Automatic annotation (TrEMBL):
Name of one Pfam family that matches: Flavodoxin_2
Signal peptide: none
Key words of the record: Oxidoreductase
Recorded superkingdom: Bacteria
Protein name: NAD(P)H-dependent oxidoreductase
InterPro entries found in the cross-reference section: Flavodoxin_fold, Flavoprotein-like_sf, NAD(P)H_dehydrogenase_qn
Species in which this protein is naturally found: Dyella flava
Keyword ATP-binding assigned: no
Domain Flavodoxin-like fold, chain residue ranges per copy: 1-211
Family: Belongs to the NAD(P)H dehydrogenase (quinone) family.
Amino acid sequence: MNVLLVYAHPEPRSLNGGMRDFIVERLRSAGHEVKVSDLYAMRWKATLDAEDFPQRNAAERFNPSADSKLAFLEGTQTSDVAAEQDKLRWADLVIFQFPMWWYSMPAILKGWFERVYAYGFAYGVGEHSDRRWGERFGEGVFKGKRAMLIVTTGGWEEHYSERGINGPIDDVLFPIQHGMLFYPGFDVLPPFLVYRTSKMNEQRYGETLAALGTRLDRAMLDQPIAYRRQNHGDYEIPSLTLKPELAEQRTGFALHLQAEFAA
């Protein structure tokens, strides 16, 4: 198995740094090939701007989508972006590891998505008609690949429960898991979550790594999150709204889970 670990934490001696080293060792010892994109160590450029497209007509207004599409089609993307796209093509499993900062990922990782997910590569692909609306949400370039989040947070697990102050963790992560991973076709595994990171001691750290190791060992066997696929009859096309007879008793993000898997 080919595994890409996209890692976003600025301190190698952190909890995340220790987990990163464990992940790489665990996977390699099991015979898997592993590549690591350590974004802070790479000094990854986080902003998508006109500098990403040196071949564009500078006299024209900068259009992120159109310029991204042209650069992808003409092979004029910057070398750092093209290299990450090649890693994604190579990978069977992509792991995104990061601390939760302000209810989302660090800006450097968000910038990775914005720059690497070029138009024509991760979005803007496929037929758009009254039958289909592009290859996305269960289809796309990453179909057949798996992805998983490994997320640390200082909050308690209860804080991210159904009645917790932060809202359910599945809702907090929905824009990432559904919108950034399932959208271009990944099968999205349930996340591996570490709560109350400031209360980590040696015993709990060992227990955390043991649980993480089990998840890694089963990464190609575990069932992915059962999101509804866009072009398979659950949504009206082209309005992309769930058909009224489906999930009548549910609201919010849970609408987009297949009925038998919804809570």
